[in-house]
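Assemble and predict.
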Amino acid sequence: MSEKLFSLLSGIIFGIGLVISGMTNPEKVIGFLSLTYNWDASLIFVMGGAIVVTAPVFFILKNKTSSSLGLEIKLPQKKDLDKNLLLGSSLFGIGWGLVGLCPGPAISSIAFFEPITVIFLVSMVVGILINKYI
Amino acid sequence: MYNFTPVSAMLGGLIIGVSVVLFFYTTGRLAGISGIFANTISSKTNRSSNFLFLLGLVLGPLIYFYTTKVPANFKITDSLMLIIIGGLLVGLGTRMCGGCTSGHGICGISRISIRSMVATITFIITGMITVFILQQFGIYK
């Protein structure tokens, strides 16, 4: 039960952070990706602000094997820079640049009641299924 | 620099960091949103808590707008072709590389993962090239 409660709470806090940061607005993300014209560096400060909080905590907790709720801690173990990492991140970047939405803001954007973002989310689901089954 | 908002960006980032820490500390999992989204669709493991995290992502902005009365800024392309191709590539690409701006860009980098650093630099560069090309066609200003 408390796992579900903390998941919901974490999501709410994440969503509030996203909207305060301005990153739920695709125009602002496009401004960051527009390096040669009116560049808006705000996104670096969002990532930096988050990492300032998370990096020390991950470092302190790096040897823990279970969470405070007694759940197993599973962290990614892959180390190699394989083809899928490079190709996948390249494709993601292209999609990100076309619209200015990455997965977090795409989901939060439901709160803005813009029908077009639902089409984006459905397309995302199709992309996920293509990767899973093809 | 145009539209540069370092203070609200940093504040939002700190709050996102608190969320990632809370989620990890309590559930033992990383708050990588593309992974949580994909797992909610295609895996029974942790489905309800994954779904609740995503629900929170929508409720957070609603609570914020309702309590602060701040007007919502949201400007997106009206091109259906860009939306559909963009969504497909974001879904496919993030699953191929195992993360997005949150999973690689925040969680991975703060765990000093080389894979995540390479992924983050790669998607920022291809994103910038994409926007540059669209600007040549007058699609973004």
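Residues 2-133 of chain A form one domain.
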